Amino acid sequence: MIGSGVVFRTRSWAVLLGVLLPGLLTTAAFAADCPGHPDALGTSRTLVVDPREHPRIGTMQYRETLPLKDHEVVLTFDDGPLPKYSNQVLQILADECIKATFFIIGQQAKANPEGVRKLVAAGHTVGTHTMTHPLTMNRMPIEKAEAEINGGIEWTTAAMTDPSKLAPFFRIPGLMRADAVENLLISRGIQVWSADFPADDWHHISPDRVYQLAIQRLEAKGKGILLLHDIQARTVAALPKIIRDLKARGYRIVHVVPATADRPATPTTPVEWLLHPPTETTPIARWPAVPNFVFTQTATLPAPGLADLNAQTAHQPLLLPRKTMAQSDVAATLPVPGRDLFAIPEGSVEVLLSTTLSRRAATRLAMAAEAPPARKGKAGKVRTGQSAHAAHAAPKHAAQAKTTAPRPTRVATGVKKRA
Ligand SMILES: [Zn+2]
Question: Distance from the CA of 351 to the center of ligand 1, in angstroms?
């Protein structure tokens, strides 16, 4: 009962100041409003959002996220209520005067309606998370998806004393999004919540690892929506340390509520719904805008002629590229390369081959290289001028060459083949 009184007083302050003086709020002011817990983190402000204006939020999947300022955090808890752990999460949040958002599973609400009422009584925001938590909403028939959505809403509101306390906020189980599901939710004025970072608390990891992931990922983005689960022992174990560290690092908790007829949305600009909106310090923002020229006349201008260049006929050779005579006998004037250029010492190939091949294989290869080529195709055709030089190379067997003195020369492959 004491807890409830504190909760409502804190909430009324948050709503009032959140609307009127958002820039003047400090964590310290709210921590002081947390009786018995002078060092509490508290809730720094309440953000009122209109689901119809920003229907998809959370940068894990969407372009937009909540319009948070640097070092602002929104805590969210999925899959409850499960008394054993949800009650402990509730107590930890109460001790820190923190307001969070809970996404309820219909079956859990059906089994534990009191758990839903406790969340509402504590001033937390309550959204839904389907009836049975299927991880197939990205591929199930839309009729089935709609039944899941409706079941969750039906049983969660049934558990509430005042059904109007249900926020039109929805998180798809496993974040298994699909356009059809999102469009259905949006058409009903329900905001689709992804998250900005999880802490993997549904995996089999230690509470300390949950704490590390929560802080590391928050630090990487600087602000955002943290996805947790109030049905896990490791989350209960990690939560106090996460909150203590948030406080130590200067983070502030933001409580999100839906806009209603008597509670207008917190004024925001579109760029605030981006995680890192472009600022004045972004270089591209300083580029001057390109002016829009208005053309008064669009007629094509004539191309200038020689007369426009004040050129006399006698001067034309100076202005225009000089005419040249094509030399059609270029080939005849080129020097013929000497035969020594193509000559390699006899035996070189055998020496090279013998380093990697057996002597027998090397000999066989050398014999093949020296064999007269088959006369076929273009390979056998060489212009007359070259054949005169190549004809001097006499084909010899490698073994035979080694015993002959003085050593003849072999001709490089391409030319030798004319022998
Ligand atoms: Zn879930």
Answer: 75
